[in-house]
Design a protein that fits this description.
This protein is mainly beta. The protein is 12% helix and 34% strand. It has an eight-stranded antiparallel sheet, with no helix packed on it. The chain is globular.
Length: 207
């Protein structure tokens, strides 16, 4: 069963080259440590999208059944292929039919941490990087619960006590600081030049 696309998509990313999100809203049971617990960055790279999930110190991907290392939706629910990169190679597996994931709702896709320990046990992995082939930032949408992304995380891990809590963490869009597409930059540059020209003409007329 696939997620139902929400009416409010992530259009803010559609005209940018990169968007960042904070993993900062814990929806499991128990009292988590103070967040944020990590970040998710999606970056347009030619015809593909690079995805990076980086967890803060003391937090690791968990395997609890509450979710997956990252969950996301695409408009139109197309078939996707991904390429793991860096240290993620061999540690994660694409789930093309993520479905219902605890309190975060229904999702189209997910990445399962196949090398992580169950319930936050060793081995501990806190970084995931991969490329989604033939994708754009404009394809990302919120799920039916209006969530951007979700990640199943072991929070507040210590060698003596293990995970303080485990469960899904939702992602909030940071203030966009990404660079606009080249076409947008060109239009901005033309506008600035035109403004400067008009001001010079007015100054000359006054003189």
């Amino acid at each position: 069963m696939f997620a139902t696309p929400a009416s409010a998509d992530l259009m803010v990313c559609g005209s940018l080259t990169s968007c960042s999100y904070s993993l900062d809203t814990f929806i499991g049971s128990g009292t988590p440590p103070a967040g944020p617990y990590g970040s998710i960055t999606i970056t347009q790279n030619g015809a593909n999208v690079d995805v990076s999930v980086t967890l803060s110190s003391g937090n690791y991907f968990a395997v609890t059944g509450a979710g997956e290392a990252i969950l996301w939706d695409f408009s139109g629910d197309p078939a996707v292929t991904v390429q793991l990169t860096g240290t993620s190679v061999g540690n994660f597996t694409l789930d093309p039919n993520a479905g219902h994931q605890d309190g975060s709702g229904e999702w189209n896709y997910g990445m399962i941490c196949s090398a992580c320990g169950v319930g936050g046990s060793a081995p501990h992995i806190g970084t995931l990087t991969f490329t989604i082939d033939n994708a754009t930032l404009a394809m990302f949408i919120k799920n039916g619960n209006l969530n951007n992304f979700a990640s199943d995380i072991c929070l507040g891990f210590t060698e003596r006590g293990g995970c303080l809590v485990t469960g899904d963490v939702l992602a909030t869009l940071d203030n966009p600081t990404a660079v606009p597409e080249p076409a947008s930059m060109l239009l901005l540059g033309v506008g600035l030049v035109a403004t400067g020209f008009v001001r010079r003409k007015k100054s000359a007329a006054r003189g």
